[in-house]
Amino acid sequence: MDSQGSIQVSCRQTRFDIKQDAAIKDIDINGLNISIVPIASHSDSTVSSKSKLVKSSKTAAIEIVVQAELKLKRGHRYGLIGRNGTGKSTLLRAISDRLIPGMPESLKIAFLDQTINQTDIINNGSSSTTVLQYVLESDKYRNELLSQHDLLSHALNDTTDALSVVRAMRHIRHNRVLNEFSYAEKMARLRSGARGLQARKELVAMEKKVSESSALLLEDPSPSMVQQESQEAVELLSILQSELEMMRVTDLEAKARMVLSGLGFNSERIQSAVHALSGGWRMRLLLAAALAKASDILILDEPTNYLDLLGIIWLQKYFDSISSDTTIVVVSHDRSFLNAVCEETIILSDKSLKYFRGTLDEYDEDFRSRRLYLQRMKEAQDKQIEHMQKTIQNNVKMGKKTGDDNKLRQAKSRQKKLDDRMGMQVNAKGGRFKVNRDMPGWHDSSRAQIEVPEEEREMHMKFPPATELRFPGPLVSMENVSFRYSRGGEDVLHDINLVVHLGDRVGIVGLNGCGKSTLLKLITGMTTSTKGSITKHPRLKMGYYSQHSVESLQELGRLDMTCTALSLLLEKSGGSLSEQECRGLLGMLGVVGNTASAVPIAKLSGGQLVRVAFALVLWERPHLMVLDEVTTHLDFYTVTALSDALATYHGALIVVSHDRYLIRRVIEGEVSGDVEEDEDDHDDLTVLARKYTVHRLVNGTLKVLKDGMGQFEKAMERKCASLTV
């Protein structure tokens, strides 16, 4: 159960018992149903009738997938995509928590959960737990083997107490019995019907076994039992040593240090306490813990959210060092990252799971070409059907008028062809469709209808154009600007020179902590420069999207549960916009109807909050938008829609981002897929002279990258080569 409710799972179960088969590393589940049952509210608890309560909870269940197929093959790398709110994180949690009946119990699963509460990270260790200790202690399977190994070694080497070996063996057996009981309890809860009845019988038997094991812990062993237990202890110790040697336990600390270093932890931070880390560094810590574990399935939910480009490229290269037997499932809004690390794509859409053997870009290209092919096929067939219908009507009319039976038979024959032979002209393999081969047995119609797939991406965004300046001039001009936090400290930024005109596209890239956000605060006037001058156009309207905009809205929602997107925008505009104008702006960004006016801010998803934050930026129709890490909390469909909207925006843009696709699309002007620029958005002559520049902020200075994002990416690859993978 989570804060949103409990996850309920059912599926078509296999007749084979795969619980103890360690060789099975695949997941092959048919008829999978996953839903979330919200936690009963206070008003629900007052319902006296049990049947009414059960009925209301079933009605309120939110379906994630229905009769889907979940197939994860050993050693394959999958990219899971889907719109915000479709349930990607819920699906991953159901896998990691082993809520799906039929999953091999022997599978070792490592999971990076983006929805984890920050306080849970601290609660998992003591106040003195260091970053390195947290990573080493997070592998529960390895720690259990080590604990059993140390317990047996100490008992066998203890010459003063002959019964210590017996106590150690019974303690280990008891813990294993408890694990089996936990599994039996879960199966009894998840399974239904005849299998559920059998699972409940097994649970009763396990309860008896646990009781006997508990009693055995208190019994005194006989001399023969001591000898037998000692022999079994020696054999078990040998098995544990073999397993630990296969896991290369001695190299685990070196591996943990290497992973932490690759993710940006320096030597000082590796030895620091976990509770002293900020939220972003805690999420990096969770990622490091997942990567350092020995796992059969590695599940990463938005691993790039808090990484700079160096960390992202390091993670891409680290995937190459992971065992070829490890299955990897990744959810990410970073298109370039998914293309680099995933060989297959899983699409969560319409409560089903679809599979495509290829990268995300290959899937997009295949989807567009197939959609175009089916669209043309349908248009051609619609014309053919229209022509045949006219011919049939004319033949019937002439046949009845002249009494010509041939005309009537011809009309009947064509009508039969129209009814039976219209539809898909090709089979699933792309060959010519044949009824006796492609649709054997009884069926309602001979051919499936041509269905043109709808676009998977979310609603397109469109930004209102910037207001007129009335007279030309640079929007922002920075001349030899420097900044330091304290009078005696060193300059964080020095000798910054930057000029931005209407229509310009300025991208700023760099490593985390190099001062990008500080530079944006200087531009927006939130911070004053130590040296140099910053001048702005007298009529400049500027909009600023902070990297913490979503968190600020979430905090506002918690403080005021009645605040909605519409009421917030009305308050922000101070009466400058009417309710209709506010609804129009929110609607252009995809926040429509009751979502804008009735749903509290606290209940909006991360993607919806990004749209609301943009509405707060755009209501004044700014000449310059300053955007700091806008892709966080978004799925890749929304990132694509946002990139298209920003690329056609009439005003100027200053964008800080680690997302390579966003920089290339918005700042460098690359056009993706079949997207075309709207010439109507460029009616101002100043836009024709717009400049596209990518700057790198390094060592406090701003440098123009002549080759844009590609140049920065190559620099990070060279830097990454110095880090051990």
From TrEMBL:
Q: Which domain of life is it from?
A: Eukaryota
| Record-linked Gene3D superfamilies | P-loop containing nucleotide triphosphate hydrolases (3.40.50.300)
Query: What are the ABC transporter domain coordinates in residue numbering?
Result: 48-375, 476-724
Q: What is the lineage of its organism?
A: Eukaryota, Fungi, Dikarya, Ascomycota, Saccharomycotina
Please name the GO terms that the record assigns under molecular function. Answer: ATP binding; ATP hydrolysis activity
Keyword Repeat listed? The answer is: yes
Q: What Pfam families does this protein's entry cite?
A: ABC_tran, ABC_tran_Xtn
Q: Which InterPro entries match?
A: AAA+_ATPase, ABC_tran_Xtn, ABC_transporter-like_ATP-bd, ABC_transporter-like_CS, ABCF, P-loop_NTPase
Keywords, comma-separated and alphabetical: ATP-binding, Hydrolase, Nucleotide-binding, Repeat
Give the residue ranges for region: Disordered.
398-419
**CDD domains, alphabetically?**
ABCF_EF-3
Supply the name of the protein: P-loop containing nucleoside triphosphate hydrolase protein
